[in-house]
């Protein structure tokens, strides 16, 4: 079924047409949402919200325009809204760090890993000062406690905790800004 016929059927309220649309685009939409949000649950919510909007706005769809343009425009606008709102603080760095640890650990078979997403996180880590980057790397390796890192670097435990928390904030902000600029 071509986009025009699918759109026509959607406008008529045909649930089978909606299922076809979902089956055709949901995987692509999910991957794009996950790429920018770095969180499975948030990406799944974005997909659900997108298709809910499609169903609600189905009567106003333009049969002469490709459906994928409409879908990705709505998704892009939703992602920008989410990423721009600092009070949401939805960017879940832990998910990206988990992916980074898996890649650094040699497990590159994970289907959730996205090279561009990991490159964003790596780029953000490179922006840290050398001291913060060292603390951050030791901390995320999971091999050292705060006390062991403090002893190793001749710093106080409170300094390690503070520098690590500041590193996380800085990385979140850099990745958030990069994600926004890539969506623009």
UniProtKB/TrEMBL annotation:
Residues 119-171 form the RNA polymerase sigma factor 70 region 4 type domain. Pfam families: Sigma70_r2, Sigma70_r4_2. GO terms for molecular function: DNA binding; sigma factor activity. The keyword Metal-binding does not apply. It comes from the Bacteria. Keywords: Sigma factor, Transcription, Transcription regulation. InterPro entries: RNA_pol_sigma-70-like (IPR039425), RNA_pol_sigma-70_dom (IPR014284), RNA_pol_sigma70_r2 (IPR007627), RNA_pol_sigma70_r4_t2 (IPR013249), RNA_pol_sigma_r2 (IPR013325), RNA_pol_sigma_r3/r4-like (IPR013324), WH-like_DNA-bd_sf (IPR036388). One of its GO terms (biological process) is DNA-templated transcription initiation. Residues 21-85 form the RNA polymerase sigma-70 region domain. Belongs to the sigma-70 factor family. ECF subfamily. This is RNA polymerase sigma-70 factor, expansion family 1.
């Amino acid at each position: 079924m071509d986009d025009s016929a699918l759109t026509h059927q959607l406008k008529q309220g045909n649930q089978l047409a909606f299922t076809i649309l979902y089956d055709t685009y949901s995987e692509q939409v999910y991957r794009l949402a996950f790429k920018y949000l770095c969180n499975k649950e948030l990406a799944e919510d974005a997909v659900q919200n997108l298709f809910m909007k499609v169903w609600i706005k189905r009567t106003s769809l333009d049969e002469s325009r490709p459906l994928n343009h409409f879908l990705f425009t709505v998704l892009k606008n939703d992602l920008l809204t989410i990423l721009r709102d600092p009070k949401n603080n939805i960017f879940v760095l832990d998910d990206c760090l988990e992916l980074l640890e898996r890649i650094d650990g040699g497990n590159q078979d994970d289907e959730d890993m996205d090279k561009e997403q990991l490159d964003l996180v790596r780029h953000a880590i490179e922006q840290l000062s050398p001291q913060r980057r060292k603390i951050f790397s030791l901390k995320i390796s999971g091999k050292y406690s705060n006390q062991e890192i403090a002893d190793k670097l001749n710093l106080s435990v409170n300094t390690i905790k503070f520098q690590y928390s500041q590193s996380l904030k800085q990385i979140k902000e850099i990745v958030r800004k990069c994600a926004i600029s890539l969506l623009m």
